[in-house]
Design brief:
Helices cover 25% and strands 50% of the residues. The chain has helices at residues 37-53, 67-75, and strands at residues 2-4, 7-18, 21-28, 57-63, 79-90, 93-102. Strands 1-2-3-4-6-5 form a six-stranded mixed beta sheet, covered by helices on one side. The protein is globular.
Length: 104
């Protein structure tokens, strides 16, 4: 969890999909976006998870229009692995997802 003044403003989670591979998920309060907080928090979470979970790879996905999340992952060293067309549903509409990967 990411705290500010006693309030949770974000979270980062790593779900193991293999012995040394984790799927990343994260959220940041809308009021905190655009200030570099997600990038800083993800950097710290990755450092801790790599050591604690002995990860060889971290994977993640986001929607094509989530430019903030795309920038955060790229700033933290993730590379794009491809696009999954219609892979998710958001507000009743099929959306494309961009896959990302980090090999620490």
């Amino acid at each position: 969890l990411l705290w500010q003044g006693g309030v949770v403003i974000g979270r980062y989670n790593f779900t193991l999909v293999d012995e040394s591979v984790a799927d990343l998920g994260y959220r940041l309060a809308q009021s905190q976006t655009g200030r570099g907080i997600a990038t800083l928090g993800l950097g710290m979470a990755l450092a801790k998870a790599k050591t604690a979970l002995n990860l060889s790879r971290v994977i993640a996905q986001t929607t094509l229009n989530n430019l903030g999340s795309i920038r955060v992952m790229e700033k933290c060293g993730f590379v794009r692995t491809g696009t999954n067309q219609g892979a998710a549903e958001l507000h009743g509409q099929k959306v494309d997802l961009i896959g990302f990967e980090l090999c620490p």
